[in-house]
């Protein structure tokens, strides 16, 4: 029979255990949010950073990066990698803009948006199919695709295109009041992705695939179909990011997105997505996108040169890899 003294001891231990579980979960799953808080505290000393208008600009700047990072997240969750996203970002809208401005007279800009998304999906379909049915490492396939698509873009638009139809740039440039439509789209896409990962068969299946591919096959999941599916989703999201970026810049340039995959990789890793697959949270990825976009905004407000900004992004990538390693070590220690 439980005595009054026993109850007191249990009530005293309970809160301690809850706090222990809380900080362990923060360190292993939600470390990005303390980083967000630190960034905000640092930014509070920079004039103009903590304003509504600037926050909307941060979200606007994060839209394209967020789409690409979310696409990479889905691929990483299966234990694969896609390096081609930065080239899909520019290749998909390039084909659509050329259709509208050079190849087909009077081509509808709304159809151009559909074409851009379709091109992104086809790139993902090709990568996923080669990975599954030609049994080639996705790293090698996507590396080749990265170089091939970028080379095609340089060949097709060596001088860029600076007269893009307004309907095609609407998503990236339009504001509703002071709120960029691209920011609303970013929040909506992340909300959909969160629901997909939490409540759908697709989300549960790719998590299972990343944790144990053999067990997932034995459970009757069509792994080949699933892998192709995540690469298609990644291609679609990269194309959407390209459409947004074209709208922000009101042009298509062959150098657009060049080197962006490293920042995308840093964001996915910093957000807690495991490189080995099976572990990662949509909320963590969103927090990491905010951190990188916020740091970019801070550096621009302070006036840090572009070359030094590259150094900062390199440091962020190293930090992301280090934190990922530390989190994996803590998970193993506390689960044993």
Task: Describe it.
The protein has helices at 4-29, 32-43, 52-77, 85-103, 109-133, 138-156, 166-173, 181-199, 201-211, 213-218, 223-249, 260-270, 282-302, 306-335, and strands at residues 175-176, 179-180. Helix 4 (85-103) crosses helix 11 (223-249) and helix 7 (166-173) packs across helix 11. Residues 5-13 have low confidence and may be disordered. The protein has 14 helices and 2 strands; from the N terminus they run αααααααββααααααα. By secondary structure, it is mainly α. Strands 1-2 form a two-stranded antiparallel sheet. It has a single domain, classed as ABC transporter involved in vitamin B12 uptake, BtuC (Orthogonal Bundle).
Detail the topology: elements first, then pairings.
Blueprint: H1 4-29, H2 32-43, H3 52-77, H4 85-103, H5 109-133, H6 138-156, H7 166-173, E1 175-176, E2 179-180, H8 181-199, H9 201-211, H10 213-218, H11 223-249, H12 260-270, H13 282-302, H14 306-335
Antiparallel strand pairs: 1-2
